[in-house]
Amino acid sequence: MNILITGVSRGIGKELLQLAVDSSSITKIFACSSSEGVSSIASDKIECLQLDFTDSKSISHLRKAIGEEPINFLINNAGYLHQELFKDMNVSEAKKMFEVNFWGPYQLINAFLPNLLLGEAHVVNVGSMGGFQGSGKFPGLSPYSASKAALANLTECLAEEHKDQKVSFNCLALGAVDTEMLKKAFPTYHAGVTAHRMARYIFDFTLHSGKMIRGKVLPISAGTP
């Protein structure tokens, strides 16, 4: 089966890529990152593809590269986080968070919907507890949390529109994970969950839960951060 994973250059995405390489269920991996030739993992399964959600032409180029091949699994993992108080936030940074965290997955799903339907796919959008209704919120994360909330709501809407078709949509709202992105935003904060551990959960959920769980936004956190 074929899987498309975004944001594979580091953190959770890089761990997901390794898990896909090691899985006997996966025969081909479309590994997407904003940089070319991103994979430091050697495998004949991997096809490295450039995908920059801030570039309006990037998804159309990706569409040509993949063609009509079925996609059985899609993990929208790529994300962008900039921490700054709302009163000081540069609008361009806020827009970039929406471009990467919301509009990117939106356009990717839209462009590859025929491939996803052909593959009877399970689409997993990687969200955040910051965008989960009723969770604890932190200063400096308003555009990030809002973009992830939009992604969660999109997941529910897509599940409703395609409930009579063999494609599933779910969103995993992650708590804090020990990644470079988190450390850059919060240098003194220590997350208790490693990127590998979270990637294992996401990967297993993607491969095995699409037929049983549909249209859900699931909090994956020991607390409410």
Secondary structure layout:
Elements lengths: L1 E5 L4 H12 L5 E6 L12 E5 L7 H9 L6 E4 L14 H21 L1 H6 L3 E7 L13 H20 L6 E7 L5 H6 L9 H14 L8 E4 L5
Parallel strand pairs: 1-2, 1-4, 2-3, 4-5, 5-6, 6-7
Key phrases:
225 residues, alpha/beta, Rossmann fold, seven-stranded parallel beta sheet, 17% strand
What does it look like?
With 225 residues, the protein is α/β, with parallel strands linked by helices. It has helices at 11-22, 58-66, 91-111, 113-118, 142-161, 180-185, 195-208, and strands at residues 2-6, 28-33, 46-50, 73-76, 122-128, 168-174, 217-220. It is globular and about 45 Å long. The mean pLDDT is 92.
Q: What's a concise summary of this model?
A:
Helices cover about 40% and strands about 15% of the residues. By secondary structure, it is of the alpha/beta class. It has one domain: NAD(P)-binding Rossmann-like Domain (Rossmann fold), CATH 3.40.50.
